[in-house]
Amino acid sequence: MTTGVVKHRGSALWIAAMIHRLSGLALAIFLPFHFLALGLAIGGEAKLESFLRWSDQPLVKFSEGGLVFLLTVHLLGGLRVLAIENFDWRDGQKQLAALAAAVSVVIAVIFLVRVF
Amino acid sequence: MNVRLYLWQRATAALMAPLVLIHIAVIFYATRQGMTAADILSRTHGSIAWASYYGLFVAAVSIHAAIGVRNILTEWSPLRDRRAGQFAVAFGLLLAALGLRAVFAVVLS
Description:
The complex is a heterodimer of chains A (116) and B (109). Chain A is mainly alpha-helical and 116 residues long.
């Protein structure tokens, strides 16, 4: 029984579902800090500017690239889920999931190239 | 997850898909030549369009994330349904409050 339950783990679509869940969780943890950062503008433009200059550090930029990846992969993974649930089943779901991950990596890399 | 929560999560997901696409485009546009507070605030200050866009985004993401967090807590933590629900509501309200404060900060302050 247990073997049957866990057998699917490690399959491409199980990994896709796990990436969707973990990216959503990471974005949920990030959001309050994102909102707090933007809220610095209440104290004046200088406070927000000071934070933005702090965010010029390479490590912060790399983290932002990671966030762009998480946002894109969660969006594309979510669109795949909505399509599966609302339209006729189409084959090639594993390829679609892999394409979503690949597109997300490309978008994040393009972001990093632009900010560095 | 009950049917009501399932529908709310899927509806907010469908609503947010175009909002996220626009957000990613804005991120790329804003970072084209470094990003300054003056650049950001000159675009957003007094803009009803940006206030509406980000206000809607904050409302949708607060609901969507709260339901997602509730599902994860129910499945992956020892919390019971009721406790997970209470935590999720508190988290959703926190996101909504901080998000609307952020919208106020960049549009109205």
